[in-house]
Amino acid sequence: MRIEIKRFQELDAQELYDVLQLRSEVFVLEQDCVYQDMDYKDQLALHIMGYKNSKIVAYTRVFKQGDYFKEASIGRVVVRKSERQYGYGLEIMKASIEAIHKNFGTTSIHISAQKYLTKFYTSLGFKVVGEEYLEDGIPHVGMIRE
């Protein structure tokens, strides 16, 4: 998988469309969750895109400290369903962590994780903080990596 990192202003129309399509495919259709994906936070984020054969198959958006949480953060972590068996989730998260270190100069990262993915994020050094909560009707937990 080839990784590209771009600021919102650097995304071309096709890239933005492909990112929004993937997020909608997984978060709205697959997870059956009606929510407002376009939240005016994309403009603040760095967009981490994973390509396979020129098609976006994995994606996250990352924020500097104070833009989403007190700490830097990673969100909208997504891998196309047909591509999940290849370890792209791990690759895109490692690239996102590295992008935060390189671009924002911090090691403290806060995420809002879907509860069923706690073990996955723990393998990347995240630890659960606080109680479970519902976000858009899906159980989540706060997690921090120092």
Automatic annotation (TrEMBL):
The keyword DNA-binding does not apply. Keywords: Acyltransferase, Transferase. Its EC number is 2.3.1.-. Signal peptide: none annotated. GO terms for molecular function: acyltransferase activity, transferring groups other than amino-acyl groups. PROSITE patterns: GNAT. InterPro entries: Acyl_CoA_acyltransferase, GNAT_dom. This is ElaA protein. The lineage of its organism: Bacteria, Pseudomonadati, Bacteroidota, Flavobacteriia, Flavobacteriales.
